[in-house]
Every structure is written in structure tokens, then in C-alpha cells.
Amino acid sequence: MAVKVVRRRELTFWEKLYVPQILSGLRITFAHFFRNLFLHTAHLAGRLRNLPAAATIQFPEELRPLMSRFRSRHRLTHRDDHTPRCVGCMLCETVCPAKCITIVPGEHPDPNVEKYPVRFDIDLGVCVYCGYCVEVCPEDAIRMDTGILDLCAYSRQAMRLDIHELMDPGLRKPVTQCTLNFPHKCALAGGEMKGSWEAPRPSGKVSVTD
Ligand code: SF4
Ligand code: SF4
């Protein structure tokens, strides 16, 4: 196969000086600046409305509307009695390509509900936002529709959501109180069941306390 050698073009004298190129770039920048300044001023005066000016979104005070299919921070949905819809089937944990979901299921006292999540953690620092967990869920128990985009944190630990933050997306760490309506009593509410990353993962069968 013939190889075509492409030689790099030699810079001209003026290009090697760099200053003309910098001035050329500044000319374009200032042209945009003064054009937008003039047009925005004219729009304020009710003139030249048919000529659009560049718009700047003042993030984070001003947010763009999100597409309905946009995948933002996760949440767990709940039933009418505010218990999680999740039945602890582990499908989302199994399908997750980043292996960032950890679920500990417990036996539900209601015979019509097989299980419920004693613990449900998602490590957002590892999540790749593929949405597989949402698609695979048979109970519509997990969604990525909170519209929350500010996912930055000062530590990796703060990127790990536990069940409290997933059930109430408005919560921020440190979570000190559990107001969830579970069959078990959470450690944050004086019970024995652990619902957070700080707690060691229970081994073997989970015993549910009142
Ligand atoms: S969005 Fe993808 S990577 Fe993130 S938790 Fe769900 S399945 Fe895992
Ligand atoms: S969120 Fe859905 S897929 Fe994941 S364990 Fe709960 S019921 Fe199963």
C-alpha cells in the first residue's frame, strides 16, 4: 500500500512572530464582545429585536431546562405508605457495569412483599450514568429524574449515597436522622439496622428488628 507523506507547512515570517496571530484572535473576540454589547443594549431599548445576541446562562443560579430523558442523580421511589417500592431483587446491582450499587435485602413482614432494602448504596464516584439500573428494575423503584446535577463533593465518601439520600434526594451529608418508614428501625433512629456506608455490611441472613 502506497504511503502518502504529508509534510507540515513551514510557518511564514509573520506567523513565526506570533504577535499578528494573537492580534487576529483578539480582533475576533472583541468583535463578538462589542456586537453582543451593542445588541443587548439595543434590545433593552426595545430596538433590533430581530437580531439575536449571544445569551449567557448564569449557572448555577439559572438552569437550562433538562430533556425529559436526561439522566440525573438517582432516587428510590416509594409506595403510598412511604416505604420503598424496591423489593430487593438485586437485578440493578447485578446489571450495573460499574459495580457501584450495594444492596442488602431483608425479609418483609408483609407476605405480599417479598423483600425490601435494608441497605441501598450507590457510589456516584464510580457510576457511569448508563441508566441500566433504571431500565432493568421490574418495580419502577429506581429512577434518574431528580434533575440534580451538582454532584461535586470534597471527598469520595461524600459521593456515596445511602438509602436516606436516595429516598429523599434533597438530603445532603451528613445524614443524622432517619425519618423513613421501614419495617425495620434504622440505626439513625435508635434501631439496630444499618442503612449507611459507615456501617459494616451485615453478613449472612439479615434479621429484621422492629
Ligand atoms: S447508572 Fe449505570 S453505572 Fe450508575 S448505578 Fe445505574 S447501572 Fe450502575
Ligand atoms: S431497585 Fe429495582 S432492580 Fe434494584 S433491587 Fe430494587 S426492585 Fe430490584
Model description:
The structure is a single chain. This protein has 210 residues and is of the alpha+beta class. Helices cover 22% and strands 10% of the residues. Strands 2-3-5 form a three-stranded antiparallel sheet. The termini are far apart. 20% of the residues are buried.
Envelope shape: elongated
What number is the mean pLDDT? 86
Task: Determine the structural class based on helices, strands and strand pairing.
Answer: alpha+beta
| β-sheet strand percentage | 5-15%
Small molecules held by this entry: iron/sulfur cluster
Please outline the major beta sheet: 3 strands, antiparallel
> How many separate helices?
5
Q: Can you give the helix content as a percent range?
A: 10-25%
Separation of the first and last Cα atoms: 76 Å
Report the strand count.
Answer: 5
H/E topology pattern: HHEHEEHEEH
**Rg, Å, rounded:** 27 Å
Residue runs with pLDDT of under 50 for 5 or more positions: 199-210
Lateral strand order in the biggest sheet: 2-3-5
What are its keywords?
single chain; 210 residues; alpha+beta; two-stranded antiparallel sheet; 22% helix; 10% strand; elongated; disordered C terminus; binds iron/sulfur cluster
